[in-house]
Design goal:
By secondary structure, the chain is of the alpha/beta class. The chain is about 30% helix and about 20% strand. The structure holds S-adenosylmethionine (SAM).
């Protein structure tokens, strides 16, 4: 039975945050001094596999591992290997991940061997100094090695960059030329008000409508119907021959075609990235060896998937729209 929400949207895409921990501290994402979940609260890799498998049986066709940084979860490749059986059986169409790239040089070949074809790498700047400034702990050279290794292993890469006012807006043309020159799509993301951080989001927030208008002064952008199952809208860039995506949770609510739900590493299911409502799947998972309770809990949760979110960033709204950081539910 497919999972269909109250607004008639079929849920076919599951994003799983396998850890809330990360080896970076991007200023728009986390506070520097984060308190992470105690290890004992985490689902084991076997439990994550069981949960994902139930979702696949219920119609999930695309599964994305995220975090935190998914590649810092201990033995993560064991989970990837396990999940790859659903690619082999044809039940799952795509297994992918979103990563900051720091560990890719270690894992790229094995990911490819497990049937992963495409990955998203988050990269906000090509300037090593600025990279260190925005990620606080990151090393650009390491990420570049990771990107090289991934391409060498045959993985297709999409770069994701969060557009940040007066930080990387002027650099986007260069980032795009570089990405397209290496055969990678680039997607720009508006910063979302999730979790308390030290920086003022009003200063960082840059509506992509403005950035697009400025890019259109230099480049010829044409809308194309290309879709990857996510919320990005794409244009073709005549000058580079590449694709540029826009993810606009703030200026253009992307909710009407939402096909996604998000599972955290403690088994909490969020039916919307931008709402607090969630369903606990860990209790029904652990309550019995059969999946009946879990199945019922998932159906009940999908039955309350909200129509959308209402993110606000302005000077009058100083509180984040949702209290959890992006690192809890992942991108
Ligand atoms: N560590 C992995 C990575 O860096 O891609 C996966 C998790 S990270 C939370 C996923 C994506 O969310 C990254 O592209 C990151 O830049 C983005 N992100 C984090 N906080 C955000 C925010 N407040 N608004 C918009 N995007 C955010």
């Amino acid at each position: 039975m497919d999972m269909i929400d109250p607004f008639g949207r079929t849920i076919s895409y599951l994003r799983v945050s396998v850890t809330d921990r990360c080896d970076f501290r991007c200023t728009y994402c986390m506070a520097e001094d984060m308190t992470f979940l105690p290890k004992k609260d985490l689902l084991s890799l076997e439990e994550l596999d069981r949960l994902c498998t139930v979702f696949i049986e219920k119609g999930v066709k695309k599964l994305r591992l995220t975090g935190g940084e998914p590649l810092v979860r201990k033995n993560i490749m064991h989970l990837v290997r396990q999940l790859s059986r659903h690619l082999e059986s044809g039940a799952l169409e795509e297994l992918t991940l979103t990563t900051n790239g720091s560990q890719l040089s270690r894992f790229a070949a094995e990911l490819a061997d497990c049937g992963v074809k495409r990955i998203n790498v988050s990269l906000d700047t090509l300037d090593a100094e600025k990279f260190h400034q925005i990620t606080r702990w990151g090393n650009l050279g390491k990420v570049m090695e990771g990107i090289d290794a991934a391409q060498k292993a045959g993985l297709k890469i999409k770069l994701n960059a969060v557009a940040l006012r007066d930080f990387n807006d002027a650099e986007i043309p260069e980032l795009m030329r570089w990405a397209h020159g290496r055969g990678m799509d680039l997607t720009l993301i508006e910063t979302m008000p999730m979790g308390e951080i030290e920086v003022d989001r009003t200063d960082q927030y840059l509506p992509l409508s403005l950035l697009r208008a400025s890019l259109e002064r230099q480049f010829t952008l044409s809308d194309i119907p290309y879709k990857t199952g996510g919320p990005a809208r794409y244009v073709h860039v005549a000058e580079t021959g590449g694709r540029l995506g826009f993810i606009t949770p703030m200026t253009h609510n992307f909710c009407e075609s939402c096909n996604r739900v998000r599972l955290t590493c403690t088994g909490t299911l969020y039916m919307c990235l931008g709402q607090e409502d969630a369903a606990d799947l860990r209790a029904p998972l652990r309550a019995s060896e059969g999946n009946e309770l879990l199945d019922a809990a998932i159906d009940e949760a999908i039955g309350r998937k909200p129509k959308g979110h209402d993110f606000i960033i302005d000077r009058r709204t100083s509180r984040p729209s949702v209290s959890r950081h992006m690192s809890v539910t992942g991108g």
